[in-house]
Write a structure and sequence with these properties.
It contains 17 helices and 13 strands. With about 375 residues, it is an alpha/beta fold. Strand 6, helix 6 and strand 7 form a beta-alpha-beta unit.
Length: about 375
Amino acid sequence: MDNVQTPVKVALVAGEHSGDILGAGVMVALKSRYPHIEFVGVGGPLMEQQGLSSFFPMEDLAIMGLAEVVRHLPKLLKHRKRLVEFLQQQKPDVFIGIDAPDFNLTVEKRLKASGIKTIHYVSPSVWAWRKGRIKGIKQAVDHVLCLLPFEKQFYDAHHLPATFVGHPLADAIPRQTDKADARALLNLPIAGQYIGVLPGSRKGELARMAPVFLQVCKALKKDRPDLKFIAPMVNQARADEFTALVAEANMQADVEICVGRSRDVMSACDYLLLTSGTVALEALLIKRPMVVAYRFTWLSYQVIKRLFHAPFFSLPNLLAGRAIVPELAQTDASVERITAHMTQLLSEDNHALIEQFDTIHQQLDQSASEVAADVVVNILKN
């Protein structure tokens, strides 16, 4: 398949918005290499804009939490069975499963058994917990596209072809962000120190983390009356819930709330207090000193502490290979301990930390979609 004029058919399946972004990016890159390319599978509006006709709505896969999965399981299984049959009929030249491992790995296994080349884009966190899953991944996948460099090292050790493509957030976020510009966009005063408060985007984690974070803000404000706080919420529902919690803490005058614009808020702030997850990576790329704290539900924590094997849970520390930002989990994520770490952060010179953040940013900025497309091209040629 060396001739770019040869018709190429690529199947892709994304399960949520982040996967839709990745899928659309690699589709754009592939279209520049193969003018006569056809896309089939499942995706969201961004992938549809690039020419995918989604076999069923992507939203049907965007299900969070054990109870929700159980409730929707019959529908998910039916979708998966019909999709596999459809793709076996379509006979794509390659299949790209984007994240959603619980759904995509089974699809990949069945397609691979049918002789279709399979790529999994976004490694499952197999390096951190449930390492036994690597056997099933090897049975299902011909090649893994990794967003993080240490993931490739894991697959190399297990003799599964993998490529580190970089992280699309590192492509999207500039190496330098202007605090004054961000404050102007948000109509915030240029003077004064702001702490960004990001207690989570899901209802449950907001209920667990926001009261703790607000008490930390209250303690910091007591010693530093000049401090200001701003909290971006993912949608209006979370904003309403957080507003009620702010009122309970009697901090209406101290905490500004906005809907969306989390990246602008992080850029506008001097320091960040946040939960673990992708938001911590965004904070690193925006180059803001942070404290990462998280409390799991009791049941989740019982499972995680038995199966989790990574030395850290926050992405900044995982990427650095050592503790460069404070991370506090479960009982360690107390008001007192978080406050102590935030107080220390406020009093330190953070230049060396920012330089480490920039080094990691440079490492992750690899033009992920272009590198991913190159891997697809090589697989098609072979």
